[in-house]
Amino acid sequence: MIAELGHFALIVALVVALVQATVPLIGAQRGNDAWVAVAQPAAYAQFLMAVVAFFALMHAFVQSDFSVLAVFQSSHSLKPLLYKVTGVWGNHEGSLLLWILILSGFGAAVAAFGRNLPPQLKARVLAVQAMIGVGFLLFILFTSNPFERIFPVPQEGQGLNPLLQDPGLAIHPPFLYLGYVGFSMAFSFAVAALIEGRVDPAWARWVRPWTLAAWCFLSIGITLGSWWAYYELGWGGFWFWDPVENASFMPWLAGTALLHSAIVVERRDTLKAWTILLAILTFSLSLMGTFIVRSGVLTSVHAFATDPARGLFILGFLVFVVGGSLTLFAARASALKPGGLFAPISREGALLLNNLLLATACATVFLGTLYPLLLDAVSGDKVSVGPPFFNATFIPIMFPVLVAMVIGPLLPWKRGDLSGMVQRLRGAFLIAASAGLITYAMVSGTSLVAVAGIVVSVWLIVGSLMPLVERAIGRGASLQHSAGRALALPRSAIGMAFAHAGVGFFVLGLTVLLSFQTEKDQVLRAGQSMEVGGFTVTLRRVESVPGPNYVAQRGIFDVSKNGTLREPALPEKRTYVGSPMVTTEAAIEPTLWGDLYVVLGDADGAGGYAVRAYFKPFVHWMWFGAAFMVFGGVVSLSDRRHRVGAPRRAKVDAGSGLKPAV
To answer: Do the beta carbons of residue 350 and residue 393 sit within 8 Å?
Structure first.
């Protein structure tokens, strides 16, 4: 009965979304305030119905109701409660319902917190958001019903993919979807602005918090996925340029460019057309990721569906959304009036360079990801595009971005003084150069690429934080006065500096890891040892350990360094009930300067076991850098300007961008 209630709630949500997508839009066009007012309660109602449906499906999973097909295919009665709950989105139907829940949730958030938005713009934004919801509700109801029943009712379920039965995967997809779907708000604001006929600094002020929130969520989701791959898959990697990994990375790159471009619109009333286009393309890339995961064009642990009918539906929806929005953009973009002029050496110029390079990097990833899929679809030829291609093309494009991230924020708007900026950054450059030279002199075998990476990362960290220190301390200021000045700095400036420094920490960890990682493979019997990264790893024994829904072969290794015994390493190989798949659980011994990473392999049949061990220096600096980036985004999001909102628009449209829609 509860499953039928969830199904009915989805049908009601579709009806409400159809009303929300049409009535407020017509009302805004005709100036009918009563019809405009429909948008807000409709957004609340659609979200409420999505909540009812989602928790109805969660109830079925928690109760192990195997009469529901999605529960039978993705759950098992012996699973721990955590993985019964996460099984809700561990399958195609449930993940799609999570997408709809978040999509309607963002619409409800705009309805609740967009009090400073003009009523007509707010109605159009919510109408566009509802149009997206209509597409996904039609998709889930007609091709992917999560409440479909099966008869006769099975006694037991097939279980969730063992690789997904992990705490990291419990929280990775929701954050990833919050980022993916969050960019729908930037898209809705962009399309609403084109329909309304107005793009101005007030619009940029309204759209930036939603874009920044989506960027933070997507950053967390990507980082959690990378961290999960590092400790769960057993090969010590954190990124492999997998097509599905790229599907989340491309909207992140475009969204980063959009964030910076919106600043120019807000501060200087220029780059309007480019910012609108970025908003459209960012969400379009999110939809493309949905198509890749659910179309059956690839096989991956990330892929949910292999039904071509579902792929065709998503492809048609993708063409409709992207084609329709780009057609509207083409019709209206010529009327977008450029704002003030600026010199190449200026804050605007630096942000424009940032956008061009990020867009080029995104296009490179796009080409490398889709070309093999398109070639296979057209000719049947198989082409592998992997890390060598992406490393050789992406890294050189991003190198000048990293250098310019320190320079741009120090340049004034409109026209900058390059010589003055160089003087201010002289100390940061000397510290960065010294770090590179010291590393090259003290660590044997250091390559010039590693030196360059260390120089750039230290340049980013010091150069990003130094202006904050300068503004806070001042000359002759007491410690108390400096603390007061630091707290009085705009949070957007503090957040930007932290985010840029976080990139520096990430690059530092990545550079040291790739340049100085050590690895060793060896067959060990009980009592035998191997050396890696200054550690001695000794196999004591391998034992069988029962789990809640698996049986594990656990290796017990003594670990010592410089004669001092440390905590034992306990890697496992798990075989889950109802699944032939064997998963690898690496043992990770963290230290201040890196991780000892031990993996238990297969038995050799003669009492020995294959053992692979790594020492991964500075690997956790990458996670710290990513967390620092997100922290910077959250600090910037808490800026008072975002809480107060944009000033009310003037009633006169002179010079604002587009002519009003008629």
So the answer is: no
User: CA quadruple 503, 506, 507, 508: dihedral positive or negative?
Assistant: positive
d(C-alpha 619, C-alpha 239), whole Å: 13
Bridge-partner residues for 531, per DSSP? 536
- Same domain as 411, residue 421: no
Please give the helix or strand (H or E) that residue 531 lies within, else none. Answer: strand 529-532
Mean pLDDT of the chain: 87
Contact by Cβ (8 Å): 333, 273: yes
- The helix/strand/coil state of 233 is coil
Q: So what's the pLDDT on residue 657?
A: 45
Pair of tokens at residue 462 = 């010091």
Instruction: Give the separation between CA 627 and CA 199, rounded to whole angstroms.
Output: 33
Residues 18 and 111 both lie in one domain: yes
The pTM score is: 0.90
* One-letter amino acid for residue 202 of the chain: A
Classified as helix, coil or strand, 503 is helix
What is the rounded CA–CA span in Å between residue 99 and residue 202?
29
Residue 221 φ/ψ, nearest 5 degrees: -60, -45
Q: Cα 369 vs. chain centroid, distance in angstroms?
A: 17
Sign of the CA dihedral 212, 215, 221, 224?
Answer: negative
Pair 636, 495: CB distance under 8 Å: yes
The tens digit of pLDDT for each residue in 500-516 reads: 999 999 999 999 999 99
For 485-496, write each residue's pLDDT tens digit.
666 778 888 899
Distance CA 558, CA 536 (A): 8
C-alpha distances in angstroms, 339 versus 264, 265, 271, 328, 659?
Answer: 10, 8, 8, 21, 15
Q: Same domain for 398 and 253?
A: yes
* Torsions phi, psi for 493 (to 5 deg): -70, -40
Which residues form the domain of 512?
Answer: 417-516+620-625
Same domain for 215 and 335? yes
What is the side-by-side order of every strand in the sheet holding 609-617?
518-524, 609-617, 594-603, 587-591
